[in-house]
Amino acid sequence: MLYKKYLIFITVILTFTSRNSIADDVSTLKDRVTREYAQSYSEDTLIISANKYKEKIEQNGRWPDINYSLLKSGDTHIREHLNRIKILSAAGFIFPQKGYSQAAVDALFFWYSINPKHENWWWNTIGRQLYLGPSALMLGNLLPSQLETQIIADLPSHPQMTGANRSDISKGVIYRGLLSDNAHRVNIGISGIKETVVITDSEGIQADYSFHQHGPQLYTGGYGEAFFNTAVFWAYQVRDLQWQFSPKQIDVLTNFYLEGMRWMNSHGTLDYNVIGRGISRLRGIHSSGTKKQSDYIATLSPDKAEAAHAFRDHVTGGNSGLIGFKNFWRSDYASKIGQNHFIGIRMNSNRTEPNESGNGENLLGNWLGFGSMFIMRKGNEYHNIFPVWNWALIPGVTSPQLAQKPADWGAISAKTSFVGGVSNGRFGVAVMNMNAHQTKAKKAWFSFDDEMVALGAGITSTHNRYINTTINQTKLNGPVTVDGVEYKRGSRAIVDASWVHHDGVGYVFPAYWYGHMDNQTKHGNWNNISSSQPNKAVKEDVFMLRIGHSWKPSNRHYQYIIVPDKTAEEVQQYSQNTPIVVLENSTNIQSVTNEAINVTGVVFHRPGNLTLLDGSILSVNQPSVLVIDQSKSEPRITLSTPGRGTEVFVTFESEGSKKQARINTSSDQRWLGKEVEVNWGIEGSVFPVIKDTFVRNGRYKNQSFGKAGYLEVKADHPGYKRNSVLQFNLQGQKIDSSTTAKLRLYVRNLGLDSHRSIIVSRLAASDWSESSLTWHKVPRKENSGPRLTIERSDRNSWVEVDVSSLIHKEGLVSLLLENPGHARSQSYVSFSSREGKYAPQLVLYRSVKSDKDAYVRDGKYVTQSFGNAHYLAVKADHGGYNRKSIISFDLSEKGVDLNTSAILKLYVNSVGKGEKTLTVSRLSDSEWSESAISWTSLPTNEAATKKNLVVSSRDLHQWVEVDVSEFIHDGKVSLLVENLTRPQSESYVSFSSRETSRGPSLILSD
């Protein structure tokens, strides 16, 4: 009886404690959020604004300068009334005795007395709630219960929609929960935000950390910015509460900020290419990349704090911490960041949408996304220039001289698929095969450290308007210098100038050109580009530079070099001694070399070959985009195939040597257009992993780790064990018994063991997802496969294992990596994942099975044949116990020649103690019979050349290989495997014969 009472007492105490904890979390969150909102304003600015609004508000709660008849249309008046309420509420929270809160309450009473319903759904469902929720929290106990009830009723109860809209609505759900002290409602709202913090192929964060909204439309600014601001704010606020975000969600947010937004930003100004129809709105300076967001990320991801702080400092004038070129393959966008400059390029294809119109915004932006390019050094070069812009002359674009409205809410309009880019991290290329408005052009951009080269070829149009390629149209800041002469204000033609300089940026022209330059005042009206903006005339001094291609041009071309961060004198010197060499600019190939750094960019619009400056010849068999870095002893080539996943055969011939590689670019929608590095040491066809993750048991059994930058395999006690899962796409590949498959993994680290063995198995067919695969959701194991031993010396290098026994047919192949050894805390092995530089690879080789094999034995067995045995024996022993193996291959119809590479592949059945050094040589005669071959009838060696093959106990039940290329030069070949070392009984090695499924084979490559 006493025991039961004790249990009841404990249960009551625990229940009470739990409820108190939940209530405390709600109270803590409400206090944090309220203070954060109130303190988000500069005190000086807040007091000035609040005093003005308090003084001018009328007794009935309205302001005389707001036209309330327009409250249901446009953005200006509704935003102004609600924003003033929010400012007064913040001032009242910080200065409670000055009457600001009462003014806010009066304005709220007036608001609900008319309760306007806007013609734009967004204001009714999202917009008003984003103002009313924070205002109510900051007013706190000073908010009358009637208003509190009305505001709570206005706030959503459950999340809905997708992307940024979903996160904004979820924010309203949280406000509702906080105002009503409802922890369950708070949880629903925060869960709604968490649901958006994922990598997706639809609206939201993409695999390259760009952001899509309204279909496949780049919107990292605008919707993406709104999403991130919401998600990171709440992730920070609940960092130590019951609703905290998972490590994976924090990683996604961090990478979106540092690998996405930071690459689209110049000193706090997001590239105008990525803000959608927001380009037509009056904007404040430095609207993104705030200090607070960087601090949130630094706290949530301490290992990325340095990068986050560098981004924060960049907003106020410092460097961003980035140098290089990034290809956003999901969005047809690329950016170049230098020490003191930013260049963003937006393109579109039959996979992506150019910029949209909608709600009367962006009324002239049709050409945004057709190669539009913004060049920034300080971030203010285009600030609010857009009412006076000539929208027919958008920087970077080749187009007829007309300006018109793009599609409402976005639409795919391009007919071409060969649009995208490639980057090796430092250097890169972007390409756009343009076909729009009766105008075609092959456009390419080549990014090096100090310059970007723009090429155009095949410019042809039947449009009746004049065709231009606009180089820049930006705010005029200082003199314009052309070939050393400062030009007065005005508008004039430019003929074959060598260089132009304006505002710290040089434009160099290596070939003849004709164009136009303006440096004068332009006039416009915000209302011309957005019906929600004031109907007010504005003027701005503008610099514009364009290349003219005339009317209805045919096969015209252009080339120019953008050289940022230079004075006019430095640009002049650069033009006289440029390191840039245009190798070709045609509709077939566009290519540029920077001699100073020995780097070349190439666009192959169709299969072909190109001779580089040093005489090397590069060939591809598919349309491709490449970066070739020859600054080191070994050429480093990075390649992509925009719009198409395919196998590319790359050949590089230099100084008598010939390198070849087969590269498979992904056809998976998520990775289509992503670059792949060429591995010269691999003779087979390379397939990069399309999905990879690790899973963990114990309390992490329901957690996924699909976006980690590594894969881990660990044998440990429950709760700490980890397995890794990989998937490869082999659809359309011919796979049969002659196919050799190797799994390649890049080793990051190894625990405390000197070595660790990994078992590779094949999983049952399943289209699993990285974002949802957990310990219990891993598909069942179908076939156990080979063992891969990882040693400490393997760290920071590639390892490979033959997995031919697991690769039976084309299609999706999923592999499991397990660590079966002794369980201990430091038993882990970690590999690079596809999120990193060295993604796992599956390599397929062309191989030939042996057509006959046997072993022979001396002593009393000298005349006996062992051709039907299931094994091949090799042994150095005393008389009567020696064994040699002979293997034949028929290569008559395999197209082999002196350039053919051949690897002999043998499966180890058994091996004696210690390490065995076997030798492989070619025999003079291949016309022997399995049923008759014996020690006495063994053919003689054809030549003295022998190849060594080392076999040890670690190779047991594994494949071993030896290069026998020099033995392969005609139709049939017989190879002898023997042990010529000191005779001993433990010298025994046996391999599987062709009578088994793991018989000898030759891996061939051209």
From TrEMBL:
Protein name: Chondroitin AC lyase
Limits of the Carbohydrate-binding module family domain: 687-844, 847-1005
Key words, A-Z: Lyase, Secreted, Signal
CDD domains cross-referenced by the UniProt entry: GAG_Lyase
Organism of provenance: Veronia nyctiphanis
Pfam families linked to this entry: CBM96, Lyase_8, Lyase_8_C, Lyase_8_N
GO molecular function: carbohydrate binding; carbon-oxygen lyase activity, acting on polysaccharides
InterPro entries: CBM96, Chondroitin_lyas, Gal_mutarotase_sf_dom, GH-type_carb-bd, Lyase_8, Lyase_8-like_C, Lyase_8_alpha_N, Lyase_8_C
Highest taxon of source: Bacteria
Family recorded in the similarity comment: Belongs to the polysaccharide lyase 8 family.
Domain Polysaccharide lyase family 8 C-terminal stretches: 582-645
Active site residues according to the UniProt entry: H214, Y223, R277
Domain Polysaccharide lyase 8 N-terminal alpha-helical: 95-283
Principal subcellular localisation of the protein: secreted
Signal peptide feature range: 1-23
Positions of the Polysaccharide lyase family 8 central domain: 326-565
Location in or out of the cell: Secreted
Record carries keyword Lyase: yes
GO CC terms, sorted: extracellular region
Membrane spanning stretches: none
BP term (GO), one: carbohydrate metabolic process
